[in-house]
Amino acid sequence: SRVPIAFLMLASVSGCSPSTPLEGSGVSIGVPESWQPASPDAWTVPGVPLAAWAGPKGSSFVIYRSLPIPGGTAAMIVESLKNRLTNLPDLKVLVHREETVAGQPAARVEVVASGGGDAFAPSGAGTPVSVNGKPLIPTRQVTVGFARPDATLFLSWHMPEQDHEQILPEIETMLKRLSLAERPGAPSSYTD
Fold first, then answer.
1. Rounded to an integer, what distance in angstroms lies between the CA atom of residue 119 and that of residue 104?
2. How far is CA 21 from CA 25, 66, 154, in A?
3. Residue 26 φ/ψ, nearest 5 degrees
4. Given its phi and psi angles, is residue 189 left (phi above 0), alpha (psi -120 to 50 degrees) or beta?
5. Cα separation, 121 vs 139, whole angstroms
6. What pLDDT was estimated at residue 186?
7. Residue 105 DSSP class
8. What does pLDDT average to over the chain?
9. pLDDT digits (tens, 9 = 90+) for 69-113
10. What is the mean pLDDT of residues 6-10?
11. Ordered DSSP codes for the chain
């Protein structure tokens, strides 16, 4: 008779857990049908990928988190992201500002650099390098970041620069559909 009780307890405990890393991070977002779910690690990000989508015109969208910034603000994220990206070759900063998204202060940085449309090209030697023989094209990155108590959360889109005017309205729609729930007592770590 102890086995069924243990099973019930396990079932009830597992039922309380979020079903995806995105839900576990308190993130809910409405993504248009033109964006297809992809493996969270389909594109390299500087943190833990939570979810990813392949979008129209060869674009991509990844939600990821990194370690929290003690006392962090949207202004701090704008400045640090702008400074980090400025070191990429041929990169041009187009937008760097604070705005309110999902009722919370957010950092927004938009840049253009060489890439494949869905990501920037690797440039370890200071020169962008084509991946898989794809030609390098101007690629726009739109990144929106949030300083949260347990993590720094980023939403990052890449798209061919020539198609950004068609894709930006979909990004704005996703940002309007974004909801961020608090995670009281959530641990601060890269691995949870």
1. 27
2. 6, 13, 14
3. 75, 25
4. beta
5. 9
6. 54
7. E
8. 86
9. 999 999 999 999 998 888 888 899 999 999 999 999 999 999 999
10. 32
11. -HHHHHHHHHHHHHHHS-SSHHHHTTEE----TTSEEE-TTSS--SSEEEEEEE-GGG-EEEEEEE---TT--HHHHHHHHHHHHHTSTT-EEEEEEEEEETTEEEEEEEEEEEE-SSSBPP-TTSS---STTPPPEEEEEEEEEEE-SS-EEEEEEEEEGGGHHHHHHHHHHHHHT-EE---TT----S--
Is residue 168 classed as helix, strand or coil in its secondary structure?
A: helix
Query: Which structure tokens are listed for 1?
Result: 């008779």
CA distance 172 to 31: 11
Q: What does pTM read for this prediction? A: 0.85
Under 8 Å between Cβ of 162 and 9: no
Q: In the numeric block, which tokens belong to residue 161?
A: 């620069």
Specify the amino acid at residue 29. Answer: I
